[in-house]
Structures are given as C-alpha cells and as structure tokens.
Design goal:
Rossmann fold; four-stranded antiparallel β-sheet; 24 strands
Length: about 650
C-alpha cells in the first residue's frame, strides 16, 4: 500500500485550521488499512515538490509544505511504515511540472521508478558519485565518510590497501533507501592506495530484523543477490580544492600567454598534482542548440565528468589556467601533500545559477520566477539563454518546451555541477565570477552571500561538523579585472567590501592584468599564484604577505591633505590612480606622495598623502575608478591594491 498525501493540505482552507488533525487522521487511515489486511506492507511518501511558479508559493504554500513534510516523517516513524522520498528526485526538475504542482509523463516515470525501487529494494546496484574514481585525492589528516548507493539492505565492506597489504577495513549497511556511509581513518598525506567497496547480501541473521517473513519476495531478493565491487585505483590522500565560476576561470592553459611555461611545470609536477575537469558539454556561444543539447540540459547532464588525471603537458593544456597555477604553487609549497583540483566553471554563468534551489526558495524566491523575462538577471545572460534555447521556445517545434532549462538560470549549475560532487570533503574554493552580475551590485551582494552559505552547508557533511567548526570552508575570490565597462569600478569595490565583511573570505586583485579589448585577458598565471598566496596564508598558516595594500583608514592632514593608512603597506609605490573631492562629489586627480613611517612606528608601514589645488576641504577619495584602470598602487611584494571609494573621517 503506497500512500502519497499532503499536497492538498497546503491549501489555505486546510492547513491553518486543521493542521492538528493531520497526523491523527493519517495514522487512522493507515490503521484502517491494517484492520482490513494485517499483512499489508505500508509505504508513505514525502510529498512531491511545489515550485515557485505556484500562485500561493510565497503566501504560505512553501512554508506549509515544509511543515507537512515533517508531519509525514512523523507519521512514518510512528506507524512503522516505510518512507519513500518523492521530493528529492524531482526538486531539481521544475521543467517537469507545467503547473508547478503536477508532474508531466516524464516526471511520472521518475515517480514510478522511485516507488519501484522502494518496493523492491532495487536502486541500480553499487554506486559512488562520479567524482569518486581512480586517480582521485581524498582529504588527509581527518576521518572521512564516503556516501554511496546500493540496493537496499546490503552489507558494504570498504577495504583500503597499499602494495597488496590491507591498511583498513570497515563495514556498514545500506538502508531501505539504498544509502550507505563508509568510514575511512585519519590518513597521512601520500599514496597511491587502492580502495575497494564490496556489496553483499546481508547475513541471514539480519534478514528478519529488516524484512519480516510475511514479505518473502524481499527475502528472495536479498538471498539471490550477487556480490558487487567498485575499485578506486591510485587513490591519494592530500587536499582537494574546487575551482569554479565563469569564463575567466574556465580559460584553458593552451589559451594563455604562458602556455609553454605552464606545460613545462605540468611535466615537472607529474604524480603530485591531480586534476578533474568538468567542462560544459555544450558551450553557451551565440548559437541555437539542437534537440540533443536541449534534452541533456533538461536532464541535468550538461557537465562532462572527464575523470581524474595526473598533471602532464597533455592533461593540463585543456584545464583551467587559473586552477592549474593555483595547484602548481600549492604543490611547490607543500611538497609532501598531493593536491587535487576540480574545475567545473561555465562561461557566462550567473551567480544565482550556482546556488541551491532550497536556499533561493527561502531567501530570494523572486529571482526564481520567470528569470528569463525578469529584471534580476543580466540582460546579456538572459538574451544568450533565449538564443540558445530558441528551438524549445518555438511553438511549431517538436521540442517546444516553455520550461526548457539553461545553465544560466537560478539553481541550475548547483544541481548539475555541485550536487553530483556528493558532499566531497573539499578543503576550499577558488572562485572567479561576477562579469555576468556586474549590472546589479546590490543583487550580487545578496547572491554571493547566499552562495557561500549554500556551499558551506552542502560540503559540511553532518558527520564532519566538528572539523568544519575548526576549518570553515574558505572562499578565495578573484576580483574583476580591468575592462572599459562603466559599472566595473563600483562592482570591484563591492567585491572588496564583501571580502572584508564575509568570514573566511579573501580576495585577489587583478585589475593590473586586464586587457582593454578582451574580457578574457590571457595573463592568468599570476592570478593562480595570487590565489595560492591567500590559501598558503589563511588555510595553511604560512607567514607571508598575500594581499596588496588594503585601506585601513582615511584621515585629514594639514592644508587640505588626506592621509591614507593601509595594511600590507611596506614599500608602497604609486604614481597615479587617486582622485579626491569635496562633499559636492566633483572629483579631481590627486597629487600623490608616499610617506614612510616614523622610525619608531615602522610596523605601520608606508602611508599615502593626497592633495589637489582644485579641491578645498576634501572629503571623498576614490582609487582606480574607471572600468579599465592604469592605477598602480603596490606594496613591496608587487601585489596591487583594489579599487576603492571612501569618505574621510
């Protein structure tokens, strides 16, 4: 007996007045079935999703849906019924719900498969997330829990070995939903190891605990099951980093001006740096996609999982230049630690596309609604999306689908590129994105904050909570480069402020590397190096200067002068880029003087003195305030300062 109830209870005529009756009524229904047939097997379902397009989504349906889901779980637990999750398999497929409430035939097929698996225990056999494969890196220095799927009620044995000798063995069981979690011990950096998972039928002593004799077909399914094995060869223990964002993170080694130097380094790093490339299977160029691309995009198969490879001139040439050079510096600075880098950047992608759907539904639901025709998304991104999916929007086409998916839409890339990583315990994130959100600084500030929250929650596995309390997931962000676009100076300043206010977040400046004629500037090697400096300082505890001059304080001097105090301020050099204004906001170029610290206050570093004969009583200061800037404030390490705008205290 499979029961799926609760969606109608989200009606405002039902839940507010009658919610106290829900659990007693549901239990009475189950009891009535058991009275007729005491041998009946009862399965109750978590509700299918209700999407943001529903007219009452924000006025109560969203909130009541969540409350009813919890009540259904209480019903299942209290009645001893098996719980089937119809929510998770469909929550990432809004394209299958034309009215935001009822699935179409393809959605019904997913429901049928989900119910079939729950009834039979057949979940497709032993499986791991695709990123768990030969040549991979797993975290060192902490216990690891690996999540997988198998058929229900299987014994899962994990065997870790090296040079033919068993290092560790552990056992766990898959539950009624096929989910299992295997534990590996705290391992020192190194490798290679071999990790083997074996799924076998439960010991007969366990059969009746899980399935009473009145369900003989389930016992038969258990006893006749053949053992299954998955093996991860060449497994290393070290640190895994995720590189993500849009096209400047995606830009390949063979597209950059340090191509030969990077390939030589790749040869040198063979066996130490491990890369996993996840490029898009179809580019978002100015083309109309065909039926096959439209189909696999809807099915969340937009990313190409290319598997783990060790660094070599052949493997890195099509890998992210920023990510490769980040990994290169880490390998050279941590010579005994294998480094793994996963890159899943997508050209042109929006910040909102990388945030999970639940977070957006609760924290920013308006951005989900009709994104292609709304104002939240950048006009360029919405236009490119419309161009790519034009075939699906043509009512005369066999592929007509007004709910066609696209990588730029909110939540899509989380569902297609982050969720498949399966809570992989990564060490940190390097992020280069913003070009497709620079039109609306205020919205981006909300979105980027939500993105960090979304990913930290996803990658902080519940059994790793203590580790993440001590080591919260860091985000090392690349600020937009120089390009003659009017909104970019203010956007760069917004990124600076975000990096200063968000915890465990730091930013690389690259406005000195931009190309006035190309958003995809080719000098990416220094970007990866600067990101690695942030990681070495903040994640690995190395004593070094990892950032350029960072404004700490702006104060008045004498005779209409302004003093600027900076952190990371030893050896300042600057010849241009500053402007000052009175309260009226009319800016003029400033005369710049570098002032060394007093002998007894050398720890303060150098200061900058600004003045202009055209400005009396200066109150406002801005630096690098043009889309493409040649402002040149640097410290002794050669690291540039960020664009900024401030008021004199």
């Amino acid at each position: 007996m499979v029961i799926h109830l609760g969606l109608n209870d989200t009606d405002p005529r039902n839940w507010p007045d009658w919610k106290e009756e829900f659990i007693p009524n549901y239990r009475a229904l189950i009891d009535s079935f058991r009275l007729v047939n005491p041998e009946a097997r009862i399965l109750v379902c978590r509700m299918t999703p209700i999407f943001d397009r529903h007219s009452r989504f924000q006025s109560g349906t969203r909130d009541w849906h969540k409350q009813i889901q919890q009540a259904i779980e209480q019903v299942a637990q209290g009645s001893g019924a098996q719980l089937i999750d119809l929510y998770l398999p469909l929550h990432s497929r809004p394209d299958l719900f034309p009215d935001a409430l009822h699935p179409n035939p393809e959605g019904a097929k997913i429901l049928a498969k989900t119910v079939y698996s729950a009834l039979t225990g057949n979940y497709g056999g032993l499986q791991l997330p695709p990123v768990y494969s030969s040549g991979m890196v797993l975290p060192r220095g902490e216990p690891i829990w690996i999540e997988g799927i198998s058929d229900a009620r299987r014994n899962i044995k994990a065997t870790l070995s090296r040079d033919g000798k068993v290092v560790h063995e552990s056992n766990c069981f898959s539950n009624a939903s096929g989910a299992w979690t295997a534990q590996l011990p705290d391992m020192k950096a190194g490798g290679p190891y071999t990790l083997t998972f074996t799924a076998t039928p439960l010991n007969p002593d366990h059969y009746h605990f899980y399935y009473p004799e009145k369900y003989p077909y389930l016992l038969d399914n258990l006893t006749k099951a053949e053992p299954q094995t998955l093996t991860i060869d060449s497994l290393y223990f070290g640190d895994i980093w995720l590189a993500s964002g849009q096209s400047n993170m995606e830009l390949r080694v063979d597209q950059c001006n340090t191509f030969d130097e990077d390939l030589a380094d790749a040869k040198r790093l063979a066996g130490r740096l491990h890369i996993y490339n996840m490029p898009a299977r179809a580019r978002t160029d100015a083309v109309e996609w065909d039926d096959s691309v439209l189909a696999f995009t809807n099915e969340l198969r937009h990313m190409d999982f290319q598997g783990w490879k060790t660094a070599s001139p052949e493997s890195v040439r099509s890998f992210s230049a920023v990510a490769f050079n980040f990994g290169r510096v880490l390998c050279d600075s941590l010579p005994d630690v294998p480094i793994g880098i996963i890159c899943n950047a997508v050209g042109g992608s929006t910040t909102e596309s990388w945030i999970d759907r639940t977070t957006l539904e609760w924290e920013f639901p308006n951005i989900l609604h009709d994104w292609r025709n709304g104002d939240f998304g950048q006009a360029w991104a919405r236009g490119r999306m419309t161009q790519n999916i034009a075939h699906a929007l043509n009512k005369e086409s066999a592929a007509y689908n007004p709910l066609q998916r696209h990588p730029y839409e909110p939540a899509y890339l989380f569902e297609a590129a982050i969720a498949p990583l399966g809570h992989l315990p990564i060490r940190g994130v390097i992020w280069y994105q913003g070009e497709s959100n620079a039109h609306n600084i205020e919205v981006h500030e909300r979105l980027f904050t939500l993105l960090e929250q979304s990913w930290r929650k996803f990658f902080a596995q519940r059994w790793r909570s203590e580790f993440h309390k001590k080591h919260p997931l860091p985000f090392y962000v690349v600020q937009l480069s120089s390009l003659p676009r009017p909104s970019w100076p203010a956007f760069r300043d917004s990124q600076r402020r975000l990096a200063q206010t968000l915890e465990h977040t730091a930013m690389v400046v690259c406005s000195d590397l931009g190309d006035p004629n190309d958003v995809h500037y080719r000098t990416k090697r220094p970007v990866g190096e600067r990101l690695a400096l942030l990681a070495l300082k903040h994640t690995y505890g190395h004593e070094l200067v990892c950032e350029g001059p960072t404004l700490r304080f702006a104060g008045r001097g004498k005779d209409n002068d302004i003093f600027l105090h900076f952190d990371n301020a030893d050896g300042l050099t600057c010849t241009k880029g500053f402007e000052i204004a009175a309260y009226d906001g009319m800016f003029h170029p400033a005369d710049i003087k570098v002032v060394p610290p007093a002998p007894d206050r050398r720890e303060e570093g150098d200061k900058i003195l600004l003045s202009s004969p055209a400005v009396k009583n200066p109150t406002l200061v801005r630096y690098g305030w043009s889309g493409f800037t040649d402002a040149d404030l640097r410290n002794a390490q050669g690291l540039p300062a960020s664009t900024f705008y401030t008021r004199v205290r």
